[in-house]
Design brief:
By secondary structure, the protein is mainly alpha-helical. It is built from six helices and two strands. A two-stranded antiparallel ribbon has the order 1-2.
């Protein structure tokens, strides 16, 4: 078991996002990835509360990340014209591809595995993610 844990930690370390891939912190990258992953193509905005749900964070934890991303011109916030109580997060489309380089590197790394090995890895990761999610929900 120790060998497996060591190998997994080394893999995660070697595949961590590098600090020189831009001006975004890890939290800011997570926000941008959540926006690119969960913002439907036909929508151009998301509520901070929706973003918080996707990230597993409270709205108050999301706010400083949005402040920083807005200051760095990755997104803007506007009052919802249909409900002035709501603030909409509107990412700038030219900033949504920030993680493509990282995505290509991950794909390149996975290409050393056969399709069958990739399927096995996916099944194992899904199993671990399900267990971790269940454990967190039952032991907050």
């Amino acid at each position: 078991m120790k060998e497996l844990i060591d190998a997994l930690q080394q893999f995660l370390y070697l595949n961590r996002p590098s600090r020189n891939t831009g001006d975004l912190s890890v939290g800011e990258r997570m926000v941008m990835m959540a926006l690119s992953r969960h913002l439907p193509i036909d929508k151009k905005s998301m509520l901070p509360s929706e973003l918080g749900i996707h990230l597993g964070l409270s709205r108050s934890a999301v706010t400083p990340l949005l402040n920083s991303l807005e200051a760095k011109n990755y997104l803007k916030r506007e009052v919802n014209p249909h409900d002035r109580r709501q603030i909409l997060i509107i990412p700038f489309s030219d900033k949504m591809n920030f993680h493509e380089k990282r995505q290509h590197q991950i794909e390149k790394n996975l290409s050393v595995l056969s399709m069958e090995e990739q399927k096995q890895l996916l099944d194992l990761i899904d199993k671990l993610n399900s267990y971790t999610t269940e454990t967190r929900e039952s032991n907050p």
